[in-house]
Amino acid sequence: MNKAILLALAFTGLLASSPVSAAPFLSIGFNPNSSVSVYLHGDSLNENFDAFRFRALPLEGQSFLNLNSGLIAGAARPAGSPFTYRNRLLDYDPLDDPNGKGWVVINPITTSSEVSFAGGTLTGKISTAGEPQGKLFLANLVPSATGFGVARLDISLFNAGQLVFTTLPEPSSLFLCAGVFVGTIMSRRRPRFFNERTSGTSR
Fold it and tell me: What is the tally of helices (H) and strands (E) in the chain?
């Protein structure tokens, strides 16, 4: 059976709890180079959240391969490249690239065992409605799996410091994170890039 089909079948169980109605959810795009692109659909919460936290963890015994900064010759890599990286356009200065969001991104992690980051706007709200097909590119993953499940994906959305949506089983612990996160955003000016925590990164 085609590898992409096997991966899709394996992911079905992981995403079965994701809402299929108008609630926010994550979707996955399988690329010909064995990488996987992860997207956020804001749906009913579009314009009703201003920060989020994303996390991808490989399943037990697996890992993420081809770690990368998400940049190529100073430009942000698009979705679908054969590397593991987060979408650098989220915190890219729009003066450098009109597609840059200019958001604040804190604690970005790109390792073989975790890809995660928190992000948010300095002003206004977040909506994915204006993105292609209404989905916002978050990260690209290259799993070590060859026809099995590849990752556990989690997303939490916040509005004015309050948790409004999460796929995590224990949302109470996220309220503390939300307060710290919002405070960090308010204390920072818009950056061009934040330092990455990477392992074995290639450019």
Answer: 2, 12
Q: Is the pLDDT higher at 88 or at 190? A: 88
* C-beta separation of 150 from 57 below 8 A: no
pTM of the model: 0.76
Q: Report d(CA 9, CA 29) in Å as an integer.
A: 13
Measured distance CA(43)–CA(142) in Å, rounded = 27
pLDDT of amino acid 177: 44
User: What digits encode the pLDDT tens for the residues 183-195?
Assistant: 444 445 443 333 3
Query: Given this model, what pLDDT does residue 180 score?
Result: 44
Determine if residue 133 is left, alpha or beta; phi over 0 gives left, psi from -120 to 50 gives alpha, anything else beta. left
In the three-class reduction of DSSP (H, G, I as helix; E, B as strand; rest coil), residue 163 is classed as: strand
The total number of residues shown for the chain amounts to 203
CA distances (Å), origin 58, targets 62, 76, 110, 135: 6, 24, 12, 22
Strands (E), the chain: 25-30, 36-41, 51-57, 71-72, 75-76, 85-86, 104-111, 114-120, 136-141, 152-159, 162-166, 197-198
